Request: fold
Amino acid sequence: MAAFAEAKFAILEVVLRRSAVQSVTALVALLAASACTLDFDQFEPELFPASSGSGSGGSGGGDGGGQATTSSTTSSGGGGGEDCLNGDDDDGDGAVDCADDDCSGFACVTVPEDWQGPGILYQGPEAADVACPEGFPTRVDVGGRDVLDTPATCSPCSCGAPDVACEAPAVTVYGDEGCDGANVTLPVRSENCINLGEDFQPGSYSGDAPDVDSARCAASGGEATLPPPRFGTEGVVCAPGPDAGGCAGGEACAPREIDAPFEQGVCIWREGERRCPEEFGERHVFASSVIDDRGCTQCTCDASGVSCAATLTLFQRDGCRTPVETVPFNGVCVDDPPPAASVSIEVTGTGSCRPRGGEPTGEIEEGEDRITVCCAR
Reply:
């Protein structure tokens, strides 16, 4: 090393004695002779760099999140940067999109007759949260598989006040106390005041509550709220715009490799359940419709909790004036009632109805409509 250093200084002394141009030339040659050599061939160029646009995410994104994207549609080749899907000669080299050497990560694809494409496919949960990447503005929701049978949500049932019709009450009058001796049962067909004509003073009497003739309550509620139909696996295809060029007639420019969460391979699609063309052998069939007969059972009201009640009021004077006693019709014997010139009976319906119904019913299932997506890796 000492000998090399002495030789180097000797050369520098010679260089410094020469003209300025000659000195620079000699110095450059000296540095070139002593520099290390870097082998650039050991690094492979990245064919699909991640997009630098603000609307895209990185190349990871395997969780189905909304910002995972495919590889960038702009090549990183040495021609100045060619956007490989916009139909323009961005780098001015006379070649467009797939015809440009900068777009080595893209290829021309022939789309068979009656099929749509090309595009890239995502299949997984919650496709609505997956954004189509830059350069693929056309989004096609192709349906899904394994429909989720989420039941309807039913609003609670309720019942209004009962509308009750009661049978006519009856009172049994006894000549003796303790509801004994001679008696007569008198049906009461009016709730109006009844004048007895003279003082009425039986030994005792009793009355039973009248039976229910009819009862009903107005039902409400049971409206169904249906969660949107969802599939366990949902599919979406993202297609490049119509301007992508650089290919022969009947062909379209498409990427060779795709980043997650999208499936590898360029895809075509068509309505119906179809056989795939030979060159697009990877087949995916999605249901594009559902049959939804979810709902709620009708709300009804059980009137078994409704009953009828009656009370008897005795008055000292005609016209039901000056009440002296009010007793219920409950089957209990009333001894030694006071004298009465008139009576009235009040009949009422009591209790409430019990709501029934409002339970989820029906189900959701895949319809007969299908979309077939075929991909070529």
Summary: The first strand starts at residue 106 and ends at 110.
